[in-house]
């Protein structure tokens, strides 16, 4: 009988290949220094950081123009509502309260969050909407205080809450989406979203393989906060190392 060899993964180092990204052309991003852009300097500090949530509806992160994916109402990619799912990894945080910054015509717009959506130490969901239609372009959606309780957390913008998949990162628009609705969803109608660093290395696993057989490792769960390509350098803890290409 062959013994199973459990190969320990001592260390996965993730390196960001820094590619210039136009500062004003990002899609959905978090900003901490109030300059209305996103770069590697945007990150959580000790204590409480006031995080601005921005969206650009008429451009991708790289500055390329975008339009309605199915049918254009004639008004372009307007916005009348939004919802954001955030995930703290590498530490615990306290969220909020979030302040809406879209200038709705009512002082009491519809809120899309429930109590449990805003009180978890790792996950957060919130957003607002009304009948207004704001024109295509760059919009400050909200300001969210994030208080670091422990660790050195990164903040990811996620497509949805894992426990409740109908609560999603999305914005309402006069354009029709792929589902025949007027909701543009992260991971479907748009892809570009940037959270707050530092980089996160995720080695995958745990791994088991029969002695003498090839072990396939997967670091694609690692994340960059600024949309840069990643390279992977593996240290297996027994003197063996490996690298994988840009992803």
Give a structural overview:
- By secondary structure, this protein is mainly β.
- The protein contains no helices and 17 strands.
- The chain has strands at residues 4-5, 11-16, 28-31, 48-56, 79-95, 99-100, 110-111, 123-134, 138-158, 160-161, 164-168, 170-172, 183-185, 193-194, 209-210, 230-235, 241-244.
- Strands 3, 4, 5, 6, 7, 8, 9, 12, 13 and 14 form a ten-stranded mixed β-sheet that branches.
- The two termini are 38 Å apart.
What is the gist of this entry?
With 247 residues, the chain is mainly beta. The protein is built from no helices and 17 strands. The protein is 0% helix and 41% strand.
What labels would you give this structure?
ten-stranded mixed sheet, 0% helix, mainly beta, 247 residues, three-stranded antiparallel sheet
Q: Indicate the proportion of strand residues.
A: 35-45%
Arithmetic mean pLDDT: 81
- Residue stretches low in confidence (pLDDT < 50, at least 5 long) are 1-26
Whole-number radius of gyration? Answer: 20 Å
- The H/E string reads EEEEEEEEEEEEEEEEE
Number of strands: 17
Output the structural class. mainly beta
The end-to-end span amounts to 38 Å
Q: Work out the helicity level.
A: under 10%
- Counting DSSP H or I runs of 4 or more residues, the number of helices is 0
Reported for the largest beta sheet, the result is: 10 strands, mixed
Question: Globular, elongated, flat, extended or rod-shaped: what is the shape?
Answer: globular
Oligomer: single chain
């Amino acid at each position: 009988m062959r013994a199973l060899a459990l190969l320990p993964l001592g260390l996965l180092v993730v390196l960001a290949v820094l590619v210039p990204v136009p500062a004003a052309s990002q899609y959905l991003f978090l900003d901490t220094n109030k300059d209305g852009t996103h770069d590697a300097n945007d990150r959580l500090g000790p204590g409480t950081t006031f995080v601005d949530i921005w969206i650009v509806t008429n451009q991708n992160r790289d500055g390329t123009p975008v339009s309605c994916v199915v049918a254009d109402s004639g008004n372009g990619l307007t916005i009348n509502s939004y919802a954001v799912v955030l995930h703290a990894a590498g530490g615990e945080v306290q969220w909020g309260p979030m302040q809406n910054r879209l200038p709705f015509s009512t002082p009491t717009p519809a809120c899309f969050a429930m109590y449990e959506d805003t009180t978890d130490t790792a996950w957060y969901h919130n957003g607002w909407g009304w009948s207004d239609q704001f024109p295509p372009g760059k919009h400050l959606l909200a300001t969210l205080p994030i208080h670091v309780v422990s660790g050195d957390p990164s903040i990811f913008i996620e497509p949805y809450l894992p426990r409740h998949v109908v609560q999603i990162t999305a914005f309402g628009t006069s354009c029709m989406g792929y589902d025949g609705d007027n909701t543009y969803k992260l991971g479907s109608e748009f892809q570009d979203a940037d959270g707050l660093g530092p980089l996160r290395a995720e080695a995958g696993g745990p791994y088991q393989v029969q002695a003498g057989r090839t072990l396939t490792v997967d670091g694609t769960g690692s994340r960059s906060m600024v949309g840069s390509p990643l390279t992977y350098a593996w240290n297996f803890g027994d003197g063996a190392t490996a690298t994988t290409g840009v992803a």
